[in-house]
């Protein structure tokens, strides 16, 4: 089915796109390009199925106005259900409608990492991250993937790490945290690790990290 070209829908505003390293003023945002490509490949039946699967995310009246994948994705972006760094919900939608070819496009996008920020945390934050990671690696075992999902790590990265370090939970988490820090760049913060731990109900580990960070900050004064 061919959808009309033009805007993303009258009722949904596209949120500001995250900067893409190396993208000049006239460059097309890779994430929006990905969504446009996926939308163009959807049939009317597939779009209808995706809308049905979003009924618990989007109000019925708003869903009824959606006429294209672009409009649906715009609303999901507005509600922060999908973003360039969080594609798990979109992946599940495409899996439910048996579009493995479109899932493959997501995987390629994630592997190319066009959304990864430049730079590194400052020296102090890097020291705190190292200490926090050590505590986490010593105290989080089989739930490491749950923690990394909470941090927004793409599933394709987690699967790759798991395959590379099979049967070694400790090393899987070590590598996952390193990958997360590299992925986040200068935006990697200990506060995000603590928030993610609590989001996974790993409150004891979160308390241990906070205590360690407090000790380091006190000693630095």
Automatic annotation (TrEMBL):
Signal peptide: none annotated. It comes from the Eukaryota. Keywords: Apoptosis, Cytoplasm, Immunity, Innate immunity, Phosphoprotein. CDD domains: Death_FADD (cd08306), DED_FADD (cd08336). PROSITE patterns: DEATH_DOMAIN, DED. It is found in: Cytoplasm. GO terms for biological process: extrinsic apoptotic signaling pathway; innate immune response; positive regulation of cytokine production; positive regulation of extrinsic apoptotic signaling pathway; positive regulation of innate immune response. This is FAS-associated death domain protein. The gene is FADD.
């Amino acid at each position: 089915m061919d959808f009309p070209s033009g805007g993303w829908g009258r009722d949904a505003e596209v949120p500001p796109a995250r900067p893409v390293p190396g993208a000049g003023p006239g460059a097309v945002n890779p994430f929006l390009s990905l969504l446009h490509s996926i939308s163009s490949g959807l049939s009317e039946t597939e779009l209808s199925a995706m809308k049905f699967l979003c009924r618990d995310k989007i109000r019925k009246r708003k869903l009824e106005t959606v006429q294209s994948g672009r409009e649906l994705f715009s609303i999901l972006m507005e509600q922060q259900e999908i973003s360039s760094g969080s594609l798990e919900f979109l992946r599940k939608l495409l899996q439910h409608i048996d579009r493995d070819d479109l899932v493959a496009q997501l995987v390629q996008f994630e592997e190319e990492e066009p959304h990864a920020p430049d730079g590194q945390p400052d020296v102090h934050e890097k020291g705190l991250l190292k200490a926090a990671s050590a505590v986490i690696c010593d105290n989080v075992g089989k739930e490491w993937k749950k923690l990394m999902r909470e941090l927004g790590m793409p599933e394709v990265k987690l699967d790759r790490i798991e395959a590379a370090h099979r049967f070694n939970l400790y090393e899987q988490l070590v590598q996952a945290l390193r990958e997360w820090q590299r992925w986040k760049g200068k935006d990697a913060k200990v506060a995000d690790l603590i928030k993610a731990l609590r989001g996974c109900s790993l409150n004891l580990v979160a308390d241990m990290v906070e205590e360690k960070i407090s000790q380091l900050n006190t000693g630095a004064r």
